[in-house]
Write a structure and sequence with these properties.
About 40% of the residues lie in helices and about 15% in strands. It has helices spanning about 10-15, 25-35, 70, 80-95, 100-110, 125-140, 160-165, 200-220, 245-255, 310, 325-340, 345-360, 365, 395-405, 430-450, and strands at about 45-50, 55, 60-65, 120-125, 145-150, 180-185, 225-230, 260-265, 285-290, 300-305, 370-375, 380-385, 410, 420. Strand 2 (about 55) and strand 3 (about 60-65) form a beta hairpin. Helix 5 (about 100-110) packs parallel to helix 11, helix 8 runs parallel beside helix 9 and helix 12 packs parallel to helix 15. About 50% of the residues are buried. Mean pLDDT is about 95; it is low at about 460-465. Bound molecules: pyridoxal-5'-phosphate.
Length: about 475
């Protein structure tokens, strides 16, 4: 398979978008400039249809989907039972705030929360709103002013979540004055750590930074409300923290009377092979943020779970926009959870994660351009490195992602030096195997050809012009 991308229909529609969509001007200018330098345009497509493990573009090309609606479809695309449940909720309630499904869902989520210790739920529409709501809740509950977040983290695109996020150094540009209550600490990456440090020493350093550096030199401990952490840092490159780090965070929070907020918008509801990623670490947060998979891939549903005393009586912590907890969103979540139980989805996702880890296990030793393969269940990332002085690491990752797409496998690479994959939790094992076979072919091609100027797509390879 070697698709010509974008196909004619996708290309025509992308051109129609250029005069109207966000960044259309920037995209066009960047395309012309890079074409003049001999760069190839990035492989792109517009989805025309989606079903199960596959999407088809407007030109009829079929792709194995490891992109998964930005990690949002736990049970594959357009799951008929979820669509039916949402349809029935629409027919019965249209849009209402006061409908029974939100209570049913809150009741079920309470049973599923880590240690059943977070019985209260506050609905939001998106992960962004839910993360902001969790921060607000922590500040109001503790009556303190500071939140600690981490390098490379991503919590959303709202004003508040942009400020706590540290996707890259441009993240907070022009918002510096608004971010006075945010302290950023180093995330325990497993690569590119300071020279001479072992992984364990670096984790110790990250914990020392939180408990000693911040409290002795930056802000007194009694002014800090919470640590906000992704237990599996997703958008910033699928970094997987160690048990000692996550347990260290819990210990530091307990010792200092800080709250631990786990942002499980992407890692939650089965992505890592357990219902919540914190369960891999035997850690119970005080507040948990959920989204993405709760939608069943059909209708938005997100929110914040917390301990009784945090969310049970806190009049300052107002929350929930008009469309938070819609009947359709709650119906999608309820049906998704029902299918999880009935079809043993967590076991399926754990087994698929093992299959993938096994399949990719020798890529690091076989391919010079592969830096590291990281998996936690089906939270999967491969990091890439460029030969010295030839290109940036992320160019290699983009090239691989491009070569994958042309072979019919859709994965994510934005600006990070990783290709990230988020297959549906019930993907057919053969389809996943085939997707990874094609990915390896793509890696082999990029390595064989060598990465030289002109060989890699200069722009992020999603349809991110828009
Ligand atoms: C960990 C995390 N938190 C929050 C968000 C924001 O969620 P949403 O895009 O639904 O607003 C994301 C989105 O990728 C995420 O990965």
């Amino acid at each position: 398979m070697n698709y010509k991308l974008p196909g004619d229909k996708s290309r025509a529609l992308l051109s129609r978008g250029l005069p109207h969509m966000r960044n259309g001007l920037r995209y066009q200018a960047a395309s012309e400039k890079s074409a003049a330098k001999g760069f190839k345009p990035p492989a792109q497509m517009i989805v025309g249809r989606a079903e199960g493990d596959y999407v088809w573009d407007l030109d009829g090309n079929r792709f194995i989907d490891l992109q998964n609606g930005w990690a949002t479809n736990p049970l594959g695309h357009c799951h008929p039972e979820i669509i039916e449940a949402v349809h029935l909720a629409h027919k019965q309630y249209g849009f209402q705030w006061e409908h029974p499904l939100r209570i049913e869902l809150a009741e079920q989520l309470a049973q599923l929360m880590p240690g059943k210790a977070l019985p209260r739920f506050s609905f939001e529409v998106s992960g962004t709103e839910a993360a902001e709501s969790a921060i607000h809740l922590a500040l109001c509950y503790t009556r303190r002013r500071y939140i600690i977040s981490f390098s490379s983290c991503f919590h959303g695109e709202g004003l508040g979540t942009k400020m706590v996020s540290a996707y890259n150094s441009d993240n907070n540009l022009y918002m510096e004055a608004w971010a006075g209550g945010v302290l950023k600490a180093p995330y325990p990456y497993s690569e590119n750590i300071p020279a001479g440090m072992t992984q364990e020493q670096y984790v110790d350093y990250c914990l020392w930074y939180l408990e000693t550096h911040i409290t002795e030199f930056v802000v007194p401990a009694e002014n800090i409300a919470a640590i906000l952490i992704e237990p599996g840092l997703a958008e910033g490159g699928n970094w997987i923290p160690s048990v000692s780090f996550m347990q260290g965070i819990r210990r530091i929070c307990d010792q200092n009377d800080w709250l631990m907020i786990a942002d499980e918008v992407l890692t939650g509801v089965g992505r890592t092979g357990k219902m919540w990623a914190v369960e891999h670490y035997d850690v119970i947060p005080d507040i948990l943020v959920a989204g993405k998979h709760l939608s069943g891939g059909i209708e938005a549903c997100a929110g914040v779970a917390a301990r009784d005393e945090i969310l049970g009586d806190n009049p300052r912590a107002t929350a929930g926009s008009t469309f938070a907890g819609t009947p359709g969103g709650c119906a999608a979540a309820l049906k998704t959870l029902e299918i999880f139980e009935r079809d043993n989805i967590l076991q399926q996702s754990m087994a698929l994660g093992e299959l993938a880890a096994q399949r990719m296990s020798d890529w690091g030793s076989r391919y010079e351009i592969v830096g590291q393969v990281r998996t936690l269940g089906l939270l999967m990332g491969v990091s890439f490195r460029a030969p010295e002085g030839v290109a940036e690491d992320f160019h290699v990752a983009r090239s691989v992602r491009d070569a994958m797409l042309r072979r019919g496998v859709w994965a994510i690479c934005d600006n990070e030096a990783q290709v990230r994959m988020y297959p549906a939790l019930n993907m057919a094992p053969d389809v996943l195997r085939q997707g990874l076979d094609l990915m390896e072919e793509a890696i082999d091609e990029v390595q064989r050809k060598g990465v030289t100027a002109g060989d890699y797509p200069p722009m992020p390879s999603g349809n991110v012009g828009f």
